[in-house]
Amino acid sequence: MNTTTPDLPVVVVGAGPIGLAAAAQLSERELDFIVLEAGPSVASAIDEWRHVKLFSPWRYDIDSAARRLLEQAGGWTEPDLDTLPTGGDLIDSYLAPLSKTAALTDKIRYNSPVAAITRVGFDRIRTAGRENAPYLVRLADGTELLASAVVDAAGTWRRPNVLGGSGIPARGEQQAAAFISPALPDVLGRDRERFAGRRTAVVGAGHSAATTLLDLGELAEQVPGTEIVWVVRGSDQARTYGGGDADELPARGALGSRLHALVQSGRVELVSSFRIESISTNARIELAAGDRRVVADTVVNSTGFRPDHDIVSELRLDLDPILGSTRALAPLIDPNQHSCGTVPPHGADELTHPEPGYYAIGAKSYGRAPTFLLATGYEQARSVAAALAGDWDAARDVQLDLPETGVCSSNLAYGGSDDEAGGCCGPAPQAVSAPTSRGLATGISGGLLTIIDEKPANQSGCCG
Asked: How would you label 248-282 residue by residue, b for 16+ Cβ within 10 Å and e otherwise?
């Protein structure tokens, strides 16, 4: 039985890779849908880091239903599946052509940021008749749409974590916004002038921080006077450096080894055990932790991201109190327990909230966990579309064939080489057995891989 409200579309929030995968899956299920994209073009968030190269090769970056739509449309040339795309490649060679297929082209509304999602005539308190009320989606310009269901693939890019070491903005952080760069700036390209010949503090201990530090290291070789300081909350950087050649996560090992060498060379000043309490500015920006100070011209915030649950505050959500994912998904993705290569198969069941018909998928589904996998999001989209069509057998037949790798990565993990493909979150997938009701396990030898260099939940990750 179809679980959507008759004659109303499913609203998909976000026209990034996961949102468009959901649209492609809904199209194949012959369910009506509308995609709302906050930016002026497809995948506008990815467009801001189009210079960054993914760790996962193309074979893991294309959704199956999306591929079928592109092949049916004709004129699309599939990329070499063994090469590593940049964010720009992902848009130009995949997402932009997908958005122009007949099934999607008239279904995407750009410059349509969502302000709120609720039920028509129902706040969060009222119960009687709730399940029969359509969804009300209000846009930032006041426009309202009715929906049978909502698939929220808005991501987390627009909600970076704060620099403050206690989870709230440091004193003076908001006033210092002009001195703070978002994660993954294009240090060697578009944003070069901001960093060349100046002192930059990079805050964070994940892969986005490592990427920026390595780019700055290259810039320092080109431009005298370029100074780099790396600010971290922890005291031991083994998790960032990884195990080098012995690391079971080869690209992370390569990335970490290069960063370690850069720090050991003295070209990067490492400031550890530094939890930012206050920020002040004059001609420069000053970070303070107790009586310690870090002064720079620019600070790059590489502390990770968090989901925006404010727009769905009138819906009934069952959120994990730590991660902000669904409560059922949280133990499967907790970065204190798992690396991004150890996430078990999951789909609509684990993504279900007490509010029937609302699903957050993609990076947003993971809350603050920095372990999201692009291919995992595609399987989420397939499972949720099947559930919305009432095909629960398909929804629960979750099959994941993943590289143990992530979405956001570094151009420099292998010195920028396209042909040394590997995952920032693990080696190539292995064929393993698992209970048929839950699909294929993704850990080594069918079990969960335990590694010593996992990142805590408040750190930026290659997969977040």
From this structure: bbbbbbbbbbbbbebbeeebbebbeebbbbebbee
Closest CA to 260 of 276, 279, 245: 245
Give the residues across from 358 on adjacent strands.
150
Alpha-carbon distances of 66 from 63, 101, 167, 332, 336, rounded to whole Å: 5, 10, 38, 27, 34
Question: What is the full per-residue pLDDT of the chain (464 aa) written as tens digits?
Answer: 344 556 899 999 999 999 999 999 999 999 999 999 999 999 999 999 999 988 778 988 999 999 999 999 999 999 999 888 999 999 999 999 999 999 999 999 999 999 999 999 999 999 999 999 999 999 999 999 999 999 999 999 999 999 999 999 999 999 999 999 999 999 999 999 999 999 999 999 887 898 899 999 999 999 999 999 999 998 877 666 655 554 434 455 567 788 889 999 999 999 999 999 999 999 999 999 999 999 999 999 999 999 999 999 999 999 999 999 999 999 998 877 765 556 788 999 999 999 999 999 999 999 999 878 788 999 999 999 999 999 999 999 998 765 443 333 434 333 433 333 333 333 333 333 333 333 332 222 222 222 223 333 333 333 33
| Contact by Cβ (8 Å): 268, 231 | no
Pairing of strands 135-139, 144-147: antiparallel
- State how far the Cα of 443 lies from the Cα of 190, in Å rounded to an integer: 39
Kindly give the residue spans of alpha helices, DSSP state H, lying in 321-419: 330-333, 348-351, 374-388, 392-396
Sequence length of the chain is 464
pTM of the model: 0.83
312: tokens are: 């769905």
Q: Which helix (H) or strand (E) holds 44?
A: helix 44-47
CA distance 124 to 314: 5
Asked whether the beta carbons of 323 and 356 are under 8 A apart, the reply is no
Element (H, E) at 135: strand 135-139
C-alpha closest to that of 424 among 234, 250, 279 = 250
* Burial bucket for residue 102 (CB in 10 Å: 0-12, 13-18, 19+): exposed
Q: Which of these, 266, 292, 296, lies nearest to 281 by C-alpha position?
A: 296
